[in-house]
């Protein structure tokens, strides 16, 4: 009857909450279908309630499979990798992009470990890479967000950027009145007076 259907739908809505990426289970993450998961349900679930998990579930991934889970991978829920999308080996062969979407749109190559590690997605090594360019980052430039100079940097669009100071500091030039830089023709070679720390640190 319609009433039974409405009651069933109400129960499902209580157990999960809607998410743009699919149903979400508090404390467990995304609800991923795994109807064909090749193991006994009791390995993870208690009794007849799917929401009750085995409290002391433990699995030594390295010992049992030969594959160590390091960093954040050790904290990932099993079904993030083992689900109905297909054999894990198919995704593992692709490297990081087998599971992690490439937001850089293939612009930075397949070796994610050149910037990322398994602890966090926050990139590292940017200063060292920038030292090989025509504009090594020192002073305040070393802690400035990449996107301030490279629009689209977060998705790997590191288009060549003009290294002249006024390219980024046009507003600073316009408002410099002590002395008036524009009237005096002081519109280039800012590094003759200014240090890469802050504009007020000028040597006259």
Give a short summary of the structure:
This protein has 204 residues and is mainly alpha-helical. 19% of the residues lie in helices and 2% in strands.
Task: Outline the structure in words.
It is built from 6 helices and 2 strands, in the order αββααααα. The chain has helices at 2-15, 61-65, 88-92, 126-130, 165-168, 170-174, and strands at 24-25, 29-30. Strands 1-2 form a two-stranded antiparallel sheet. β1 (24-25) and β2 (29-30) form a beta hairpin. The longest helix has 14 residues, at 2-15.
**Sheet with the most strands, sense and barrel status:** 2 strands, antiparallel
Strand runs, count: 2
Beta-strand content bin: under 5%
Tally of individual helices: 6
Question: Helix-strand pattern, N to C?
Answer: HEEHHHHH
Q: Helical amount among residues, as a percent range?
A: 10-25%
What is the rounded Rg?
27 Å
Structural class: mainly alpha
Overall pLDDT metric: 79
Biggest β-sheet: strands ordered side by side in the sheet = 1-2
Global shape: elongated
Uncertain segments are: 1-21
- Distance linking N and C termini: 87 Å
